[in-house]
Amino acid sequence: MVIMMIFAITGSLSLYITIELFQFIGLQAENLNPIIFWPIRIILLFIIYQVLLLLVALPFGQFQYFWKFEKKFLNRFGFKL
User: Fold this and answer.
1) CA-based angle 48:19:71, to the nearest 5?
2) Measured between alpha carbons, how far is residue 29 from residues 19, 22, 39, 49, 74 in Å?
3) How far apart are CA 33 and CA 40, in angstroms?
4) How far apart are CA 17 and CA 44, in angstroms?
5) 5, CA 20 to 30 Å: which among 13, 39, 55, 64?
6) Among residues 47, 39, 62, which one has the least CA distance to residue 15?
7) What crossing angle do the helices spanning 34-57 and 2-25 adopt, rounded to 10°?
8) How far from 41 is each of 8, 10, 11, 13, 48, CA to CA, in Å?
9) pLDDT per residue as tens, the chain (81 positions)
C-alpha cells in the first residue's frame, strides 16, 4: 500500500511541478509549436518524476526499494548506474 501511495504522490507532484515550471518560464501550448512543446514537456516530466520518486520515497522509509527500481528502470533506457 505504501509503495502505491508513493507512486501516486510522485506522479501527481511531478505533473504539478512541470506545469508550474512551464508557466514560470512562459512556455505554453498556445504560444509554441506542439511538435516542440510536447516532447520538451514529456522529457522534463520524465526527469522530474525520476528525482521526485526518490525524494518522496525517503520520508516513507522506502528509499532502498525505489533506488533499486530506479537503477533497473534507467538501465533499460541505456543509463548505466
Assistant:
1) 15
2) 11, 10, 11, 21, 29
3) 11
4) 10
5) 39
6) 47
7) 140
8) 19, 16, 14, 15, 10
9) 999 999 999 999 999 999 999 999 988 888 889 999 999 999 999 999 999 999 999 999 999 999 998 899 888 888 776
pTM for this entry: 0.84
User: What is the maximum span of the chain, computed from C-alpha positions, in angstroms?
Assistant: 42
Backbone angles phi, psi at 19, to 5 degrees: -65, -45
Rounded CA separation 1/35 (Å):
38
Count of positions (residues) in the chain: 81
